[in-house]
C-alpha cells in the first residue's frame, strides 16, 4: 500500500498525486514510467514518472480522467492508499546515459501535448540543471487544460504555450510553433515530443522537415510493464519492440505510428462499457447518499 | 482391479465455467486406488520422479489410513504437493514408469498426492481450540513440527537452535514462483531471515498468472500454499522489479546470499506477417489478463477479448490453457500445431480435457500469415499444411511443409503460445551475471552462478520447464546456500550464526 501524501487538481480533468514509494523514488530516472493499481481489483495502468524525490521517498504522477480506471484512481484522496505502485519501468531517456559534458553543450526542444507535459517536466528539469539549453513548447486544447506552467517555466530557458483555440499563448498546434521557431532561425540539436500518439506523429513529420532528430515516448497498452506479455509491442524500424522494456522512448523517425495507434484501440469498446458501468455505479452510490442526507 | 476413476465436472457444463475440472478422490476412493499398489522393492515410479518422492511409502500410509503420515512422507521431498498433484506431467514421470502400467493402468499417483495434500490442508484449516482456548496440536500443525525436525536433523547434525536466533543471516529470493517459494521455505525452516521480491502485485509466479483456475484453484490451493510459506516467517514484498526498482548490487549489499528464480516469462512471437494486427496476442498476455487480473469475473476491470472464434497456435500446456480459457469465455476454439497429436508436448490429461470440452485440433499446420480486415483486426490465420518426415534431434518426427498447400482458418483472435524465454531485465542490468545465448542463467551443479553468493534455479536456468523441476531446483539451491553460509568450525559442525556466537571455540 502506497500512501498519497498530496493531491492537487491541476485542471478539472487532470489530477496530480504525490505518493510514498521509497525504493522507486530512489531508482527513478527521467524518461521512465511506473504502473499503478488504484484498488484491489483495479486494472494496471502505466503512468509516466512526473517527478521523484529520493530523500522524501515520493514520486509524483499526473493523471487525466478518461476511462473507468483513471476515474477510480482520481477518486482517491490525500491520505488514502494506492493499492499498488511498481517501477521505475522502461529505459531512462537516452541523454541520461550519455556523458554530462556532452549533453550539457546541446540544445533541446520539448513538445509537450496535454498530459505529456508531466513526463516532459523531469527531463527538462534534469537538462536545465546540468546547463543544457532547453526550450519547451507546451500545447493544450484550451487555457484551462494547460498544466504545470509555473513548474515548467522554472526548468527551461523559454516556455511557449500553445492552445488550439487561442485562449492562451500561440493559437495553433505545437508543431506550428516549432516550425515558426526554427523558421525564425532558432537551432536545436534534438527534439523530444511527448503527448498523444497523433501529436507525436505530426511532431515527427515536422522535425523531419528540418532534419531535426526527434525522440518520442510511446504510451502503448500495457499489462505487466516488464516484458512478460507483449501487449505493448510496436514496430520500430521494421522490427517488433516492446515499449515497456525497449522504450518507452524511441527514435521518432523509425516508429510505425499508424500501427501503434491502431493497437491502442483494441479494447476501446470494452473500455466504453467499463466507463458506463463505472458511471452507473457511481450514480447509484451518489443517489443513495442523497437519500441518506434527505432523510 | 481397474484404476479408480476420478469424479469430474461434466465437460459441457465446465466448458462454461472456471471452476476446477476434477473433484479429486475422497478417502474411500483414495484407499481403493492406493490398495492397487504393489509396494515394489525397486519402485520405478520413484526413480522417475524428478524429486524422488517416496511414492510407495506414502501410498502405503494411505492404505493404513494414516493420511497425516502420508503427508509427512511427501513433505520430505516436495514442498508443493497440492500443486504438483494437480499439474505434474505424471504420465511421463512417476505414472509413466509404474510397473502396473506395463500391462494395465498405472497407479493414479498424482490424484493420490493431491488427495493427501488437500486432506492435510483441510485438516489444518479446521484446526480448533480446546476448551482451554489452546490450539490442539493436531493435524497439520503437528506435521509442521515433525517436518521441521526432519529437515533439521537431516541437514544439520548439531541443531544448535539457540545460535539460529542470535544471528540470522539474510537471504533474498527473486521471484515468487515454485522455485522461489520452495527455496524460501527451506531456508526459513533452517532459520534464515528470508525475503522474496516479486515484480508483479501478486505472488505465485506462473501458478497465479499462467495456470488457470480450472486446473489450479487460486484461493483454495495457491493462496493456502503462500500462506504456509509466510507462516514460516518468509517476507514477501511485491511490486519490486529486481534490476529496476532495486539492483543486484543493492541486494548483495543487504543480503548474505541471493536466489534468482525469476522464471522464463518472455513470450516468443513467430515473426510471421500480420502479428501486430488487433486481436493477436501472446498466450502470456491472454492468460495474465484472465488469471492475474481476473478478466473472466463478472464486472472485472481489466478487459479481455476472446472473440467468437479463436485460434491458438502451439501444442504445449500453455496452448491448452489458452484454448480452454478462450472456450470458457465463449469462443469457438481451434488449436493449430505443426506436428501431429502424438507429438503434442502438453500433458495428456490437458489434451483429453480440451477435446472433451469441445476444443478443435488442426494438426500438421504451420501458420505463415495473419490476415487482417480493413480495420486492422484479425480476419483469418493462413497455415501451410505439413507432413511428418524423419525424426529430428529431439527424436520427434520433423514436420515438413507440403508445397503450395495452404488453408485459411477464419477467426477473430489469434493467441500465440510458441513458448517463452528468460527475461533479461536482471542480466542486462548485471553484466557480471553469466547467461547463455538463450538468455538462461548459467549455474553449476550446486546451482551457483558466476557471482559468489548468488544462486539460481527453475525456468530462469533451464528455460520453460515444469513446476516440479522448479520446485526441486529451489530446494537444491536452498541446500547450497545453507552450505555456503555456514562457516566451518573446528568441530566440523555447521550452523548459522556460528561465526559470532561460536567464535570462542575456534582454535
Ligand atoms: C500457462 C502455463 C501452464 C503451465 N502448465 C504447467 C503444468 O501443467 N505442469 C507443469 O509442471 N508446469 C507447467 N508450466 C510450467 C511451470 O509453471 C513453470 O515451469 C514454473 O512455474 C517455473 O517456476 P519458476 O519458479 O522458475 O518461475 P515462475 O513461476 O515463472 O516465477 C517467476 C516469478 O518471478 C517474477 N519475476 C520475474 N522477473 C523478476 C524480477 N526482475 N524481479 C522480481 N521478480 C521477478 C515473476 O513475476 C514470477 O512471479 C506452465 C507454464 C505456463 C506459463
Ligand atoms: S511402480 Fe507403481 S506399483 Fe510399484 S510402487 Fe510405484 S506406484 Fe506402486
Ligand atoms: S507491458 Fe507486457 S510486455 Fe510490455
Within the CATH hierarchy, at the fold level, what is the topology of the largest domain in chain A?
Answer: Rossmann fold
Total domains of chain A: 2
Mean pLDDT of chain B: 87
Query: Total strand count of chain B, please?
Result: 15
Q: How many E-type strands of chain A?
A: 17
Roughly what is the average pLDDT of chain A, rounded to an integer?
A: 90
Helical coverage of chain A, percent range: 25-40%
**Helical region count of chain B?**
21
Assembly form of the protein: heterodimer
Distance between the termini of chain A: 36 Å
Q: Give the cofactors and ligands.
A: flavin-adenine dinucleotide, iron/sulfur cluster, FE2/S2 (inorganic) cluster
What amount of the residues of chain B lies in strands?
Answer: 15-25%
Q: What would you say the CATH architecture of the largest domain in chain B is?
A: 3-Layer(bba) Sandwich
Major sheet details of chain A: 7 strands, mixed
Question: How does this structure look, described?
Answer:
The complex is a heterodimer of chains A (295) and B (507). Chain A is an alpha/beta fold and 295 residues long. Helix content of chain A is 34%, strand content 29%. In chain A, strand 15 (233-236) and strand 16 (239-242) form a beta hairpin. Chain B is of the alpha/beta class. Chain B folds into 3 domains: 11-122, Fumarate Reductase Iron-sulfur Protein, Chain B, domain 2; 165-265 and 421-501, FAD/NAD(P)-binding domain; 269-418, FAD/NAD(P)-binding domain (3-Layer(bba) Sandwich), CATH 3.50.50.60. Chain B has 21 helices and 15 strands. In chain B, the strands form 4 sheets. A 5-stranded parallel β-sheet of chain B has the order 3-2-1-4-15, sandwiched between helices. A 5-stranded parallel β-sheet of chain B has the order 6-13-7-8-9. Chain B has a 3-stranded antiparallel β-sheet with strand order 10-11-12, with no helix packed on it. The A-B interface holds A 23-24, 27, 37, 41-44, 68-69, 72, 83-89, 223-224, 226-231, 233-235, 240, 245, 259, 262-263, 265-267, 270-271, 274, 277 and B 199-201, 238-241, 244-247, 265-267, 269, 271, 275-276, 278-279, 281-282, 284-285, 288-289, 293-294, 299-303, 305, 376, 423-425. Bound molecules: flavin-adenine dinucleotide, iron/sulfur cluster (SF4) and FE2/S2 (inorganic) cluster (FES). Residues 222-225, 227-232, 242, 244 of chain A line the site of FE2/S2 (inorganic) cluster (FES).
Amino acid at each position: 500500500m502506497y500512501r498519497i501524501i498530496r493531491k492537487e487538481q491541476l485542471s478539472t480533468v487532470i489530477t496530480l498525486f504525490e505518493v510514498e514509494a521509497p525504493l522507486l523514488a530512489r531508482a527513478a530516472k527521467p524518461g521512465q514510467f511506473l504502473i499503478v493499481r488504484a484498488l484491489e481489483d483495479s486494472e494496471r495502468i502505466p503512468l509516466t514518472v512526473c517527478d521523484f524525490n529520493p530523500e522524501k521517498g515520493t514520486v509524483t504522477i499526473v493523471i487525466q480522467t478518461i476511462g473507468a480506471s483513471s476515474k477510480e484512481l482520481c477518486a482517491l484522496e490525500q491520505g488514502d492508499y494506492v493499492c499498488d505502485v511498481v517501477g521505475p519501468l522502461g529505459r531512462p531517456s537516452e541523454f541520461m546515459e550519455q556523458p554530462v559534458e556532452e549533453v550539457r553543450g546541446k540544445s533541446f526542444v520539448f513538445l509537450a501535448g496535454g498530459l505529456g507535459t508531466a513526463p516532459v517536466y523531469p527531463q527538462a528539469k534534469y537538462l536545465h540543471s546540468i546547463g543544457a539549453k532547453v526550450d519547451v513548447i507546451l500545447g493544450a486544447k484550451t487555457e484551462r487544460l494547460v498544466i504545470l506552467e509555473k513548474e515548467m517555466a522554472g526548468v527551461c530557458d523559454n516556455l511557449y504555450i500553445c492552445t488550439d483555440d487561442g485562449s492562451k499563448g500561440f493559437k495553433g498546434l505545437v508543431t506550428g510553433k516549432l516550425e515558426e521557431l526554427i523558421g525564425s532561425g532558432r537551432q536545436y540539436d534534438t527534439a523530444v515530443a511527448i503527448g498523444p500518439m497523433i501529436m507525436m506523429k505530426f511532431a515527427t513529420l515536422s522535425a523531419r522537415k528540418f532534419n531535426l532528430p526527434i525522440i518520442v515516448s510511446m504510451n502503448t497498452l500495457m499489462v505487466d510493464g516488464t516484458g512478460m506479455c507483449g501487449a505493448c509491442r510496436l514496430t520500430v524500424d521494421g522490427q517488433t519492440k516492446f515499449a515497456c522494456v525497449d522504450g518507452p522512448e524511441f527514435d521518432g523517425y523509425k516508429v510505425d505510428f499508424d500501427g501503434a495507434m491502431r493497437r491502442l484501440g483494441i479494447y476501446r469498446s470494452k473500455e466504453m462499457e467499463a466507463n458506463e458501468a463505472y458511471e452507473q455505479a457511481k450514480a447509484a452510490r451518489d443517489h443513495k447518499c442523497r437519500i441518506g442526507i434527505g432523510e | 482391479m481397474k484404476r479408480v476413476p476420478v469424479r469430474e465436472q461434466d465437460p459441457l457444463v465446465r466448458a462454461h465455467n472456471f471452476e476446477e475440472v476434477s473433484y479429486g478422490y475422497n478417502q474411500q476412493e483414495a484407499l481403493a486406488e492406493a490398495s492397487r499398489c504393489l509396494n515394489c522393492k525397486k519402485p520405478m515410479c520413484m526413480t522417475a520422479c524428478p524429486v524422488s518422492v517416496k511414492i510407495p511409502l506414502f501410498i502405503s500410509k494411505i492404505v493404513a489410513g494414516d493420511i497425516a503420515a502420508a503427508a509427512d512422507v511427501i513433505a520430505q521431498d516436495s514442498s508443493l504437493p497440492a500443486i504438483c498433484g494437480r499439474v505434474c506431467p505424471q504420465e511421463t514421470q512417476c505414472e509413466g514408469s509404474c510397473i502396473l502400467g506395463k500391462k494395465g493402468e498405472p497407479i493414479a499417483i498424482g490424484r493420490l498426492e493431491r488427495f493427501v495434500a488437500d486432506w492435510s490442508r483441510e485438516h489444518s484449516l479446521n484446526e480448533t481450540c480446546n476448551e482451554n482456548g489452546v490450539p490442539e496440536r493436531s493435524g497439520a500443525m503437528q506435521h509442521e513440527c515433525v517436518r521441521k525436525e526432519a529437515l533439521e536433523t537431516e541437514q544439520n547434525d548439531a541443531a544448535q537452535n539457540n545460535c539460529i536466533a542470535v544471528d540470522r543471516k539474510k537471504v533474498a529470493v527473486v521471484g515468487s514462483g515454485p522455485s522461489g517459494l520452495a527455496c524460501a521455505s527451506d531456508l526459513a525452516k533452517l532459520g534464515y531471515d528470508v525475503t522474496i521480491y516479486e515484480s508483479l502485485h501478486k505472488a505465485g509466479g506462473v501458478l497465479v498468472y499462467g495456470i488457470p483456475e480450472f486446473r489450479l484453484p487460486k484461493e483454495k490451493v495457491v493462496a493456502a500454499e503462500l500462506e504456509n510459506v509466510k507462516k514460516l516467517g518468509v517476507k514477501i514484498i511485491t511490486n519490486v522489479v529486481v534490476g529496476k526498482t532495486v539492483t543486484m548490487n543493492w541486494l548483495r549489499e543487504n543480503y548474505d546470499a541471493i536466489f534468482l528464480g525469476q522464471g522464463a516469462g518472455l513470450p516468443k512471437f513467430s515473426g510471421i506477417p500480420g502479428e501486430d494486427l488487433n486481436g493477436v496476442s501472446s498466450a502470456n498476455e491472454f492468460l495474465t489478463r484472465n488469471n492475474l487480473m481476473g478478466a473472466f469475473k463478472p464486472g472485472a476491470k481489466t478487459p479481455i477479448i476472446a472473440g467468437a472464434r479463436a485460434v491458438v497456435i502451439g501444442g504445449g500446456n500453455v496452448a491448452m490453457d489458452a484454448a480452454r480459457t478462450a472456450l470458457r469465455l465463449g469462443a469457438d476454439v481451434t488449436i493449430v500445431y505443426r506436428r501431429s497429436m502424438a507429438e503434442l508436448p502438453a500433458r495428456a490429461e490437458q489434451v483429453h480435457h480440451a477435446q472433451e470440452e469441445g476444443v478443435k485440433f488442426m494438426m500438421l499446420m504451420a501458420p505463415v500469415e495473419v490476415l487482417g480486415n480493413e480495420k486492422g483486426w484479425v480476419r483469418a490465420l493462413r497455415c501451410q499444411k505439413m507432413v511428418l518426415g524423419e525424426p529430428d534431434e529431439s527424436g520427434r518426427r520433423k514436420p515438413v511443409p507440403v508445397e503450395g498447400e495452404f488453408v485459411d482458418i477464419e477467426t477473430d483472435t489469434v493467441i500465440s503460445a510458441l513458448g517463452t524465454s528468460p527475461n533479461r531485465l536482471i542480466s542486462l542490468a548485471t553484466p557480471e551475471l553469466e547467461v547463455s545465448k538463450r538468455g538462461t542463467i548459467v549455474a553449476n551443479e550446486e546451482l551457483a552462478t558466476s557471482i559468489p553468493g548468488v544462486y539460481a534455479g527453475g525456468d530462469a536456468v533451464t528455460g520453460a520447464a515444469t513446476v516440479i523441476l522448479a520446485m526441486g531446483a529451489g530446494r537444491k539451491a536452498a541446500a547450497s546456500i545453507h552450505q555456503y553460509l555456514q562457516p566451518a568450525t573446528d568441530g566440523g559442525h555447521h550452523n548459522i550464526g556460528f561465526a559470532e556466537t561460536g567464535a570462542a571455540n575456534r582454535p
